Amino acid sequence: MPTIKRKQKTRKRASPAGKAGPVNEWLELRRSPIHGLGGFARRDIPKGTRIIEYTGEKISNAEADRRYDDEQMRRHHTFLFILNSKTCLDAAFGGNEARFLNHSCDPNCEAVIERGHIWIDAVRRIPAGTELLYDYQYEDDPEYTEEDLRFYVCRCGAPNCRGTIVKTRRKLTT
Question: Distance between the two ends of the chain, CA-based, in angstroms?
């Protein structure tokens, strides 16, 4: 009788720690004044350029909630990216250097979702040496308090900074 092999569920490996240096023709990683490692333009990037795909393990929203319980975290830090109403990408597993791009309230890049892929594209010309930034646009919840918004703190330093990575019209008091 032939042996039947069961398909084993394999979890992607944890993404390696980020290292400073070139990633592709457009992007390199180095220390960011905003947070940790950041992505910087290796050369002038024309508006509309597709810079990098954001990759990671595809997981359900329920699994994302299980992995990252904000109430148990001292500070918010994940590599989750919502792909659609049922699926997230977790770049902590199977992710690439796109996970190191930081947030800004005045971004020079945007995330574009096409056919199950997330791309980071330039929304304007970006001079060489400039940090590549996109607006994380965390979903606002009408029940969020000012303390909740501060949990998702923004340190981008832009003149129009909301003070939070949550996409809200509310202004935080200083």
Answer: 73
pLDDT in tens, 2-38: 545 444 455 566 666 778 888 899 999 999 999 889 9
Neighbour tally for 130: CB within 10 Å: 14
| Total number of domains in the chain | 1
Whether 3 is in a domain gets the answer no
Distance CA 102, CA 151 (A): 16
Q: Which residue in 131, 128, 124 sits closest to 101, CA to CA?
A: 131
Q: What is the DSSP string of 30-51?
A: EE-SSSSEEEEESS-B-TT-EE
Q: Is residue 15 assigned to a domain?
A: no
Residue-wise pLDDT for 35-81, tens only, equals: 889 999 999 999 999 999 999 999 998 998 888 765 665 555 568 88
Range of the domain at 113: 21-151
Half-sphere exposure of 133 (CA within 13 A, CB side): 22
Q: Residue 26 corresponds to which amino acid?
A: W
Q: What is the Cα–Cα distance from 4 to 153, expressed in whole angstroms?
A: 52
Residue with tokens 């989750």: 80
Domain annotation covers residue 14: no
Q: Which residue has the tokens 């949550």?
A: 166
Residue 172 lies in a domain: no
CATH of residue 76's domain is 2.170.270.10
